[in-house]
Design goal:
heterodimer; A: about 230 residues; mainly alpha; MetI-like fold; 8 helices; B: flat
Amino acid sequence: MIDLHGFGHQLLLGTWMTIRLAFAALALGLALGLAGALAKSSGAKALRWVGEVYSTIFRGVPELVVVLLIYFGSTGVLTAISGWFGGGYIELHPFVAGTLALGICFGAYATEIFRGALLTIPKGQMEAGQALGLGRRRIFSRIVLPQLWRIALPGLGNLFMVLMKDTALVSVIGLEEVMRKAQVATGVAKAPFTFYLAAALIYLCITVVAMTVLQLLERRAYRGIRRSHA
Amino acid sequence: MDFALIWQSLPLLLKGALLSMQLVIVSGLFGLAIALPLALGRLSSNPLIRAFPYAYIFFFRGTPLLVQLFLIYYGLGQFEAVRESFLWPVLRQPYWCAVLTMGLHTGGYIAEILRGAIQAVPIGEIEATRSLGMSRATAFRRIVLPRAARIGLPAYGNEVILMLKGSALASTITLLELTGMARTIIAKTYTPVEIFFAAGAIYLAISFVMVQLFRLLERRWNRHLVRS
């Protein structure tokens, strides 16, 4: 590793934090996205409305505002709740706040992708499941979900790239990821261009690796499926 | 939720929103201007000409906007040559750094949209220009580019919304746009929930208006495609 005024190791630690944050937010976001898509295509009007409001709001508000709102806003709410139980001041850890904020934003976009994917699954397949006597949950997990994954994968891959870059925003609330480490190093070594360029290169490396992995995943998801070569 | 406080801070927040929109529009025009040559370079048959736009787009799409902003605002000052150049009075100001970064960033994205749109122009229409004896430049100006603009318009509308959200990052380099203004008010009143809620609502309103504007433009530009 290049020494970088002795901060190379710190940047690597930050990289590990960035990766952990991205995957934590991905897990939350996928769950929220799937729930949002099911809500939006549900028969109940109230559920459809909840899904609609969720995906509209969090696609229209900047991620930075969501990060700041959750980090600073949660303190007041959590402290009030803990006050009822005789507790004191509570603050969310930046990692938790970042995961929540990025996961919620990811979920709002993922809602649309999953919903679009749901629409492509022929209704006849679900009817066939019913005819075979499968329960609704079985139909979803055995017939719908495996195909949903394949159809949604390219879109989700793009979202993951965006998510990966958005992790940089969590440096604003002090989480020690790549950007924050670069900022701290800049304060000591007075070489901002060097450190921010190093951070940029780290993000580029993560992007390249993620792209390669996504291609492999896509190839795996599409095994046994004929694709037209447009 | 203290609505009186939201009402009180509204004038300041709207002032911030004005700066947000200004950032989006100025950087958007700058981005459009650099996107066209980038897209054309990317489509060139000469690999040497293709290489630069490819690297440019790869860098600006592969790294976070925040990193690019800090590279330009904090980073450029590291070089003696930049500090002594005639550009320094401009590059020292957060406003121009934000415009420059956002413009370079969105330029990379628009270039890809434009490239995709140019490649999506039906080959038959281009052959038709050949058979009419148009030169390549004339055909590009009169047929290919206007067609590509219509094809790329929906994707471009999305990109503008993304830039509106990206403009919030300008608050990290001390600009008092909507998010920066909200943070300043919160530092005084310590009411993060109310003020960020209000700021979020204003962002939603602006993006709603933008989506409608693009929809209108799309309907106007693509009216020949509408089947009655």
